[in-house]
Amino acid sequence: MxxxxxxxxxRPEVKGMLLTxxxxxxxxxxxxxxxxxxTAYPAPLVLWLRHLAAVPIVxxxxxxxxxxxxxxxxxPWLQLLRTAILVVEMGLALxxxxxxxxxxxxxxxxxxxxxxxxxxxxxxxERVGWRRWLAVAxxxxxxxxxxxxxLAVIQPAALIALAATGLYAIYNVMTRHVGLIDRPETxxxxxxxxxxxxxxxxxxxxxxxxxxxxxxxxxxxxAAGAAGHYCLVRALGLAPIVVVQPFTYTLLVWAVxxxxxxxxxxxDLYTVAGAAMIVVAGxxxxxxxxxxxxxxxxxxxxxx
Length: 304
Fold this sequence. Notes:
The chain crosses the membrane at residues 46-63, 84-101, 107-125, 132-151, 157-175, 187-207, 213-232, 239-263, 269-287. This protein is mainly α.
């Protein structure tokens, strides 16, 4: 009773933070299961089965909101392209997970918000001030610290992770665009159901019989992914991105903890230092975006 009363009286921003933390924990669990499965089976098969198992879960989550009504998009081809980019990105990330530690992959993927900021200029026509450009530069410097070009041979898996980061940044920019014309639940439905349909064109060609325990892992993987994405969608509906984004970096903590407990991997000092640079730069960029938006809102109110 007290817990329920506390939840009701909680500020939306605090609920958004807690939902983001929960989403990152679910994503960390999802990635650990993905890494375990992809070492035994082809990545396209794991991705296909994950999406197939997620479809009934997502439909159940969205059942009270009438999924058929939510599926109607004002830009269906844009939603389909966004979903296709996400599917390819996830496939590349799974490949990277096979050969690299979870913390190493996520440290590279953490630069996504900064890369999305840079891409928003040519793709969305947004203006980015020198402070956010500086944050972008520091974030990319953090990636260079992780990769250490010139000091070590860059492993191909790191390049795969970089390619996944680029695609994920494009996906984020497109999500920001479709968010202006479609509801978040519509985008969520498209990326799960649309992704499953697209993967039906590829996944069956990689079919291998799974062990019974691996079927359980596939269902758990799908449930964790669907629940995590839904929590993040709800969090962004309750709190501004400047509040939510810093908490998304807790996924790095989950990656380190799970990577050590399950796979015995610990990040080296370069990875920790580079990841810290990316987190600081990304959080600052999100704060500057909030400041810019607040100023624009005040200016609009004064002019009105």
